[in-house]
Design a protein that fits this description.
Blueprint lengths: L1 H4 L14 E15 L13 E13 L4 E14 L2 E17 L3 H30 L12 H32 L1
Antiparallel strand pairs: 1-4, 2-3, 3-4
Helix pairs in contact: 2-3
């Protein structure tokens, strides 16, 4: 009788959870551009010194939805004066479904910032040029290497924490 309900076909095999990585939205979360010494800074004739600060935040928005924010702060000094400060927080909402936690962590730490970086680079360049300064192009960033370094740092912190926990439990046992 069961053959009749399936029209003679074998019952479909249960499917494995589907893995999916989706880009739901990309947007500018925050932008700031300051030229504190304008207009005098435009007449400075010194070699500028650039300082780049890069950071990333991840926030879980749902079971399979995450917000990743790639932040860049670029400070340009002309001598002892700040020529400009450009701050950009480029964000994206990403769907990661059917993956183990390690794979999700890796994608959030590498693929998501790689997707956001071209937007950050363009926005920073546009801000600096609109501020009256020569164009500046952020050089490519190896997010894979940064992620590997963050894993190494996490492992070192865990080792230190485990050692501290062991020392504390030994001290408590001897008390």
């Amino acid at each position: 009788m069961s053959d009749e309900t399936n029209n003679g076909a074998a019952a479909p095999a249960p499917s494995a959870p589907t893995q999916a990585f989706t880009v739901e939205k990309i947007y500018v979360k925050d932008v700031s551009f300051e030229v504190p010494g304008a207009p005098a800074v435009f007449s400075e004739n010194v070699q500028p010194e650039l300082n780049l600060n890069l950071n990333q935040r991840v926030q879980r928005l749902g079971d399979v939805v995450f917000e990743v924010v790639l932040g860049v702060t670029l400070t340009c000094k002309a001598g002892d004066k700040t020529a400009y400060v450009a701050e950009v927080q480029q964000a994206g909402i990403f769907g990661l479904q059917g993956m183990d936690p390690q794979t999700i962590d890796g994608l959030l730490g590498t693929q998501c910032p790689n997707i956001l970086f071209p937007y950050v680079r363009q926005l920073v360049s546009d801000l600096i040029q609109a501020g009256g300064f020569p164009p500046f192009f952020l050089q490519p960033i190896n997010f894979d290497a940064l992620y590997v370094e963050s894993l190494r740092q996490r492992a070192a912190q865990q080792t230190q924490q485990d050692g501290a926990d062991l020392a504390n439990s030994d001290a408590a046992g001897n008390a």
